[in-house]
What does this fold into?
Amino acid sequence: MAHLAATTDTAEAAFAAFIARWRPSEGGEHRTYQMFLTELCDLLGVEKPGTVGDAYGFERRVRITNWDGTTSAGRIDLYKRGCFVLEAKQGSFKPAPEHPTLPGLPATRSGAGKGHGVRGSKQWDDAMMRARAQAKRYVDALPTEEGVPPFIVVVDVGYSFELFADFTGTGRHYTQFPDTRSFRFTLDALAEGKIRERLRKVWEAPWDLDPSRQTAKVTRDIADKLARLAQSLEGTHAAKTVADFLMRCLFTMFAEDVRILKERSFTDLLLRYKDRPPVLRQMMTALWQDMNAGTAFSPVIEDAVPQFNGALFANAEALALNAEQIELLVLAAKADWRDVEPAIFGTLLERALDVGERHRLGAHYTPRAYVERLVLPTIIEPLRAEWDDVKVAALAAATAEDLDTARDTVKDFHRRLCALTVLDPACGSGNFLYVTLEHMKRLEGEVLDLLVTELGEQQDALELSSHSVDPHQFLGLEKNERAVPIAEMVLWIGHLQWYARSQPNFKAWPKPVLKQFGNIRAADALLTWRTVELVRDAAGKPLSRWDGISKKPDP
It folds into this structure.
């Protein structure tokens, strides 16, 4: 233990010296970036560039295809096959009247005034955006057999890093990683262990940072526990009653883990009364009644409870549980529900609640990559093409010092984004709708980042709680009545996860937390009818038909 502490202290001291050494740097990056990145690799404990030929090194040559069909030579500042393309720039610290420092960025100081603009200015921000675009052109120019690197890294030498990720494998959807708030970090952030570990993984194991891969196992484990609990309850309760009860339980677990409710409030409730099942049942019912109505103080958890205005808690009745069932609920509650992946959770939950499908739990669900093959080209790529045009127009207006026009141009696009509706006519448990929601939230994050960071819009003026991409835009039809409430819940969990990530200064959840939009409906997308009439035989007895599940031996 003492040796580990000493090693950690040595690493901290080395990074502190590195930060102090490079913090004053400014000017032309080509004189410094290779030395900067080589020293960084040494400190991160990763292989230094230039030792694996074209697979990993500085100044990797590529042929870029231009818009008119001609080609030109390009050199990637730093490339590692299967990991990243890195583009280096270097700004300056000297403040200049024509390039005012933007709010929210570190204050500038006097210096040489060279490089790609004063750090924190519009000129510098534009240079960083152009660097990202240049890196994307290099990705497109790589030989097909080398594959697409999951990361683009933009570095202002001695000042900042920006990370953009595309885990689709197409190289067409690089977005701010891990989110809008923290994709850019300064040199000083290297003092944090989690930032260093993130960079180390970008260098050596980038796919480990794919959120859907990280959360898949957690999601399967949770669904397995819920399946066992559902099976134990089905002997005494109808399937729909069990499904509704479990969805109230799991959303309450999610709510405590993301701090909508007091931390561990539901878990502690289960533990406190697990030896007194009748009391636990009453306390769970009382808590859900408080969640449905909202209250400034709930005696059950000794804290305020916001209003959940959806239909989820309209029926607040808890089921009677035995000791074994309570223990399964406790195990599910102890999982970290922040790590649930909505894109697969809906399918697994649907199977957990379906006797006929339970044997396939965790074995088969539509992989996220397959979902994105449909969602990206049909919805997201056209939106991003439009957004690229909007950015060009807005930045041109800003350069001409017409900030009002620049802001209005971006706000108009944001309004259109928030008014777009998406229909899945056979939505199942909502996987396709959720993935679409997530990608639209990522795009919305970039839109708002441009408004606030570059165009100086006040965050409060955006009124995000009333004007944002949210579940009401995602419509679904589904014949399986059990899947309908699951799809609604999947969308809400995904939306609330992104709500917290997209708020630069997160203070409070929306009021009410849930809304009853009625956007997922139990219906057949191809057929409609007013009444259902049974077919009867000559004696008036209803004729039977195969239910698609039951089986018996052929006589």
Observations:
- Residues 1-6, 96-113 have pLDDT under 50 and may be disordered.
